[in-house]
Task: inverse folding
């Protein structure tokens, strides 16, 4: 039995444009109905199921936006694309937010129209698969991709499946390390663009002087060093998805050029005299508050409006602690070929840790712990959690005696901050077995309230290890015992802190 030909509904009051669109679609092997008004389009929709509705934004008896809203409410499985006048990108954004699949600008570029139609038809074919496959279609094989069963991550996965059915720009927000690029890849892989390129760009890592060349490409001889033609990120992602990671870091001058490229879907290489059309879906990501950046004048309002069509927020790891066991198992499977397990106490420690670096920090912690684990079991000590303590660490052996209350003197003496050397001495004297700091230790510039706490702690740790090595005449085994750590932990820290023998 022959498969029914996909049917397209074209809605436009301009007869010549309707005719052009009809001819183009028929040549693609499609059936076409055309309507000159909103009311006629509604009559067609009541009688016929369509694979795509293509509507102008201006109609004699209403707005194309009304039709978009009607279809979104009553014909949820029917994608609708809008035709906007040249320079009316704001209308396109409004339509996308209302539920439109995509948009095309006048004068209509037929190549872009054909790509739009193919994407819509490919997306329409997805529900034809089994229900299970449709729910999980094209999920990336990366072991950490949206792993978890918490309510927060289940909601994210549900949103991703919905977002994949539209070509509307998406902005992904969340803390650093929360998995924004993974979410972007899942949106891409669940969409009709899954077989096309996915290009991720860290906007904060590109020198400002090279941004235009990197994004748009250049012609041979356009500048010194341009030995050959080169495509930019837009050309590399043509037909697929372009992810702008840390988009808030874009300089204002580049924001203007990026806005035009996104609105017009055309780019011009450096040194070229003509523009070329590109078909990319834009997904942005940032850990900053873009609305605040706009208020502060660091981000253009028009670009913000253009990128922030749909927002996807990723919860931090501390808000989905129940996912930590599953995430840890997946990460350990990626990090090691042999079986390495977390002890119950280590898993408990992870679930009670706040993870300021989120999933990325969890991966780093586990990668380090694998190197320290004995007999394939990771213990609490192997995790070396920041700010965490272990029962065997020397710091836990320090007894703090409560100060008995005393009468308040009539004229209390003015207390001054402890000198730098006193702070240093207090740190090292708290460790059993360590003598008073030597002059070179006391001369370290340790402020009373350090402005850079991680660096301060590294300096303290480095000096503690140096003093332990000096006391044991560079016997690392004895130094490890003195510090209350394993030999492998000490060796790792010596390498990390770049400590030479004393």
Result:
């Amino acid at each position: 039995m022959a498969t029914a030909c996909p049917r397209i509904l074209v809605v436009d009051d301009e007869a010549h444009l309707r005719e052009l669109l009809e001819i183009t679609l028929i040549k693609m092997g499609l059936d076409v109905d055309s309507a000159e008004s909103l009311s006629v389009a509604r009559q067609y929709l009541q009688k016929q199921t369509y694979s795509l509705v293509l509507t102008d934004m201006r109609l004699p008896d209403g707005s194309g936006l009304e039709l978009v809203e009607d279809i979104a409410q009553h014909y949820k499985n029917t994608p609708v694309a809008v035709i906007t006048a040249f320079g009316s990108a704001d209308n396109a954004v409004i339509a996308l937010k209302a539920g439109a699949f995509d948009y095309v600008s006048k004068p209509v570029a037929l190549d872009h129209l054909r790509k739009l139609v193919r994407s819509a038809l490919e997306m329409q074919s997805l529900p034809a698969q089994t229900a299970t496959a449709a729910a999980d279609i094209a999920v990336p094989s990366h072991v950490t991709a949206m792993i978890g069963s918490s309510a927060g991550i289940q909601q994210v996965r549900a949103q991703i499946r919905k977002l994949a059915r539209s070509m509307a720009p998406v902005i992904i927000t969340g803390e650093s390390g929360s998995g924004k690029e993974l979410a972007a890849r899942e949106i891409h892989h669940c969409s009709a663009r899954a077989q096309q390129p996915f290009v991720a760009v860290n906007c904060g890592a590109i020198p400002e002087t090279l941004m235009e060349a990197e994004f748009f490409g250049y012609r041979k001889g356009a500048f010194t060093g341009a030995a050959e033609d080169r495509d930019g990120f837009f050309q590399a992602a043509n037909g697929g998805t372009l992810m702008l990671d840390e988009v808030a870091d874009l300089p204002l001058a580049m924001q203007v050029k990026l806005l035009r490229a996104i609105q017009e879907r055309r780019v011009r290489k450096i040194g070229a005299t003509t523009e070329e059309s590109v078909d990319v879906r834009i997904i942005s990501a940032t850990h900053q508050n873009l609305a605040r950046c706009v208020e502060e004048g660091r981000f253009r309002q028009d670009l913000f409006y253009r990128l922030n069509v749909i927002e996807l927020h990723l919860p931090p790891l501390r808000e989905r602690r129940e996912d930590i066991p599953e995430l840890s198992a997946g990460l350990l499977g990626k990090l090691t070929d042999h079986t390495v397990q977390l002890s119950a106490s280590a898993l408990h420690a992870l679930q009670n840790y706040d993870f300021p670096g989120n999933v990325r920090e969890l991966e780093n912690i586990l990668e380090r712990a694998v190197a320290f684990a004995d007999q394939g079991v990771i213990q609490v000590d192997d995790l070396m959690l920041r700010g965490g303590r272990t029962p065997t660490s020397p710091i836990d052996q320090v007894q703090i005696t409560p100060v008995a209350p005393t009468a308040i003197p009539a004229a209390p003496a003015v207390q001054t901050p402890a000198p730098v050397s006193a702070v240093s001495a207090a740190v090292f004297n708290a460790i059993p077995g360590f003598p008073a700091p030597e002059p070179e230790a006391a001369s370290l510039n340790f402020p009373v309230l350090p402005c850079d706490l991680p660096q301060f702690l590294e300096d303290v740790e480095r000096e503690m290890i140096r003093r332990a090595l000096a006391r044991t005449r560079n016997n690392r085994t004895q130094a490890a015992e003195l510090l209350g750590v394993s030999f492998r932990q000490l060796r790792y820290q010596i390498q990390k802190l770049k400590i030479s023998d004393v």
Remarks:
- Confidence is low (pLDDT under 50) at residues 127-144, 388-433, 435-447.
- The CA atoms of residues 90 and 148 lie 38 Å apart.
- The longest helix spans residues 453-471.
